[in-house]
Amino acid sequence: MTIRELAKLIGVSPSTISLVLNGKKGICEETRQKVLDAVKLYEYTPSTRKSKNVSNVLLMKYWKSGMFVEENQGFISMIIDSIEEQLRAEHLGMTMTVAKTSLKSVLASIDYSKYCGVILIATEVMEDEFPYLDSIPIPFVVVDNTVPNYRCSSVCMNNAENVYMALQYCRECGHTELGYLGSDTVTENFAERYQAFIKYVKELGLQFHSENEFRLKPTMLGAHDDFVKVLEKKPALPSCFFAENDTIALGAIKALKGMGYKIPQDVSLIGFDDIPYSSISSPTLTTIHVQRNIMGKQSVLQLLQLIEDSRFMPVKTQITGRLVVRASVKDLTKGA
After folding, report:
1. Where in the chain is CATH 3.40.50.2300?
2. Which helix (H) or strand (E) segment is 94 a member of?
3. How far apart are the first and last CA of the chain?
4. Which fold has domain 51-157+291-319?
């Protein structure tokens, strides 16, 4: 009898059985006893093969809105390519699934006995969903989300240091007042970038006024259309904007150009991510390069450490990027 067959017989999920048999928390006593009774009644014998000897990793991409895992110019696909490449180098297989229903139900439906570990692309996972991660009974690593104040292993970009790098460059270029172009849909990464922006604007002696904060749809077309509506009101704009990601920045640039502004002569913009289009836009976009390939490789290495030694739980890795200077930020210190 397989774990799935037993689960179907007693009306629970395979992961519930795995949690009970591995002595994990998160299962009520009634359900725990139900599973143990069934194991005895049906003489179920779990596979003697330990998870560390299974050579397949489950890669799960969690989709809530799709705007961040699908529409950000291949940002996530680059991380996934790096994960797959590193898994091959480690002689491990990969099974990929896209979770478009609730995270809780998807995690509960998985037969974890088939995998040695899980890598979860958690860009769109929010704080209220973090507790669902406790249901994963095998080693796992969360990618593209720091999962703050929650006990699990993760690999993410260092949002705070990357924002500091961007603002410091703006100050070096002579900009004293900054605006903020943010997403109207919240993610953990965006929340961290906004917190860092508020903190470092003060520390670097820059000015930021709330009327220069604009929330736009985090797609190129959506950001363009939303910012056109802002610009139609002819607001007084700061000399430079920080954008939460390149997609928003590029949409805003198109809106500004369409309304007659010159970039960077009239308004400067700096982005975050360094997506491919930022290097060929007009003007090319100054931005923070996120090391997507390193994030992917590190997630695999971190998972392997965790499989070998559970004391590596939790390890949270934050990877700092680098500034890429292009043409969208004017250097005011050089005059006209």
Report:
1. 51-157+291-319, 159-290+324-334
2. strand 93-99
3. 78
4. Rossmann fold (3.40.50)
Distance in angstroms (rounded) separating the CA atoms of residues 294 and 286: 21
What are the start-end ranges of the E strands in the chain? 56-62, 93-99, 117-121, 140-143, 153-157, 178-183, 213-216, 240-243, 268-270, 287-289, 316-319, 322-324
**Taking Cα atoms as reference points, which of 138, 147, 55 lies closest to residue 92?**
55
Could you give the C-alpha distances from 274 to 66, 130, 177, in angstroms and in order? 19, 28, 23
Per-residue tens of pLDDT for the chain, all 336 residues: 777 788 888 988 877 887 788 777 678 899 989 999 998 888 887 654 444 457 899 999 998 876 665 555 578 989 999 999 999 999 999 999 998 888 999 999 999 999 999 999 999 999 999 999 999 999 999 999 999 999 999 999 999 999 999 999 999 999 999 999 999 999 999 999 999 999 999 999 999 999 999 999 999 999 999 999 999 999 999 999 999 999 999 999 999 999 999 999 999 999 999 999 999 999 999 999 999 999 999 999 999 999 988 888 899 999 999 999 999 999 999 865
Alpha helices in 204-245 (DSSP H): 220-231
Query: Phi and psi dihedrals of 238, rounded to 5?
Result: -70, 170
Give me the residues paired with residue 248 across strands. Answer: none
Note the CATH architecture for domain 159-290+324-334: 3-Layer(aba) Sandwich (3.40)
**Helix (H/G/I), strand (E/B), else coil: 209:** coil
The residue behind tokens 């809106």 is 255
